[in-house]
Amino acid sequence: MSRLRGSRFGAHGSAVGRLAPTPSGWLHLGNARSFLLAWLWARSTGGRAIMRIEDIDRPRCRPELREAALSELAWLGLDWDAGPKAGDPPGEYDQGTRFELYRKHLHTLAETGLAYPCTCTRKDIEQASSAPHGDEGAIYPGTCRGRWDSYEQAKRDSGIEPAWRFRFEGAPIRFHDHVSGDVSIDPSTLGDFVLWRRDDLPSYQLAVTVDDALMGVTQVLRGRDLLTSTARQLALYAALGLNAPAQWAHAPFVQDAQGRRMAKRDGDLSLNHLRAAGVDPSRVIGLLAWSAGLLETPRPATPRELVGEFRIGHVGREDFVVTRQHLDWLHAK
């Protein structure tokens, strides 16, 4: 049985944060800033940090990118108390090894009627005349709610492998975000979301909910693009009877010079590229800390130097655009 040392971290009231890279591409400056802020938030409150590898998307995730992420975050000066390279059994904190655990919680939702099989394709949803669009494309209109008596019937009658969706309804989900402020999200604006994909992979929403609960995570800091995911996950915590993290924060984006949110396609802004080019990691930390409003001017710094002065309320709400001048400063000797 997995011992999941991290699940005991919150027992005495200390904060438990987590760093959770997805090894489907090289980490970039935007990823690094979110991880730095999450690490500082936990450490500044005397808490601990978990490293978890979110590799449920097996077709896209690669072992070499997993190792690169761990190496690059350590290069920046970030450390962690549980997970890979922290004394835990290999793979224990890798989501790719935990599918049966997620499946067990899926069955719980199915038994209570909160999960149902869905045979709709992406094209079906897009073409539904009643399907408005939300943050993740067309909102699922609930076509398969009550349509099938069982998963087996759905598979037999449709001729395809169904997905599983969560019956997302009820009052608005409300929570306090330590960067964005008070948030209220109506489930009807998001629709019933996928819990288990047709290609037999768990969804991000299900895996993250289960892992954060079982690993004792009390703080979640991630990018603003995942703000609505918090509403989905809070609904899952309640449905599964799991303890949700008490503190949430969603940081603004780091953008490229064209004003686009930084993505893993941005090779020149990847940590891999910067490290290979001989950039001093203290300059990366200094630029990212300044971009988040933690320093008055960019200067070389280490994560440890920033812990004592960190306050989550100091993190700015504006997106940050990386310019040529910023890159020149990073590469300066």
Task: Describe, in short, the structure shown.
It is built from 11 helices and 13 strands.
List descriptors.
Rossmann fold, two-stranded parallel ribbon, 333 residues, alpha/beta, Glutamyl-tRNA Synthetase, domain 3, globular
Structure overview:
The protein has helices at residues 29-44, 63-75, 99-111, 122-127, 151-158, 204-214, 227-240, 271-276, 281-291, 303-307, 324-331; strands at 16-19, 48-51, 115-118, 133-134, 137-138, 163-166, 173-177, 181-185, 194-196, 219-223, 247-251, 254-255, 320-321. The protein is α/β, with parallel strands linked by helices. It has eleven helices and 13 strands. The radius of gyration is 21 Å and the shape is globular. Mean pLDDT is 92; it is low at 5-11. It has two domains: 10-94 and 212-331, Rossmann fold (3-Layer(aba) Sandwich); 100-204, Glutamyl-tRNA Synthetase, Domain 3 (Glutamyl-tRNA Synthetase, domain 3), CATH 3.90.800.10. The chain starts with 15 loop residues before the first strand and ends with a helix. Helix 7 (227-240) links the parallel strand 10 (219-223) and strand 11. The protein has a three-stranded antiparallel β-sheet. A two-stranded parallel ribbon has the order 1-2. Helix 1 (29-44) packs across helix 9 (281-291).
